[in-house]
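Each lists sequence, tokenised fold; shown next:
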Amino acid sequence: MKRKRITMTKRILVAMLCLVTIFTCIPMSAFADEASENVKVQSEDPLSVEEEIETTDDIVLEETLEEVTEEETLEEVPEEISEEIIVEQQEEIIEEEIIDETLNDVTESEASELPEENLPSPIKSKMLAAPLGEGETKVYNIYVKYVGSNTDLGLYSGLGEASEGTTVNFYIYDSASFPINYISVRNSKNEEIIKFYYAAGEHIFTMPDDDIYINIYKLGYHYIYTKSEGAGQVMASTSSAGVGETFTVTQQANNGSVFDYFEVDGTKYYESPLTLTMGDHDITVVGHFRSLYSPTVSTSVTPLEAGTITITGDTTTPGSICDVKVTANPGYKYDRLVIKYGNNTVTKTSSSFPYIIPSTNNNITFTAYFKEDTNVWNLRANIINPEGGKVSFSKDKLYEGETCRITVTPNDGWKIKSETWKED
């Protein structure tokens, strides 16, 4: 028994795919000869083969199958030829290694005295295999901030940049007008790398793979950080303040958003502007914003059984991006997708695309339209010598992209001579 799988990709109006199978009778004398040799042929399992057959506009695929006898074997390479190939490969490897070692041993002055034909070939040199820039490290910036002053006081002496992993030495000068409380070395994410409680003098740290901010804190002064959650900005009246000093925090919501509240050390403040008093540590003020809109999403398909719409991602937050994918069922083709919300209508012909959720309180509807697929293949079998076997199909018709399994089974005393795929 032989099986095949075919996938339809050809587009035609109406077609008929025909399998012509020819069975050949096996002479009884062959059975007698095989029986005399004590070979039992009917106990063998049926042959099962699966193949993908793709049809094209002007090509008819024909296939002729031949029975493989027990005497047929894979052709092997003679042993002596294999040995010669291995020896030649080994000689080439040894030759390249010798050339590479020669290149490393010959100095520039010695190379100028060698005959040109004795010079090692640079193409075979291992020295050229190293990637460009190997061993180099990225250089990051070093910034200095004075917490308690808006001007550069010139108390820092050191590098303005350094490579990752290098040791950074810097010196801090003492100042009567700016008594230093401590020094905090932070990265661009405001994460503290190291803290120095002694002020004036030399300080050392290892450069990470990020820009560095050396924050020099004035005695009694602390830094003010601002952060936004949602669509808006938070602003402080000053970047630092002394213990007991007051400062003001304001906010600005983006279009389509509204301010909700400030959060400081776990406490929520709903007034804006907000006046705060500096304590004995840095302060982070988080402004929370929410959207004015709450859109909803719904989908529909016409005809109902024609296909599906899949939407993945955030569909409730304006400005978020979701992925839309339309899939047609067998027997149908995708036509278009109509998106509506309020008085807005958008038509898409692509079956897969990203979509930005608009700022609306309306329901967003996605309606996919499909057409009936007229590119259909009807399948039938034409058996020559029908008493020799049978042909069966898993489907009687195929649409574009579908797969059908075809099984050809010869009767006892018959074998498959040939198969031909034809279009009627």
User: Anything to note?
Assistant: Residues 6-15, 28-132 have pLDDT under 50 and may be disordered. The longest helix spans residues 79-105. The two ends are 26 Å apart (CA to CA).
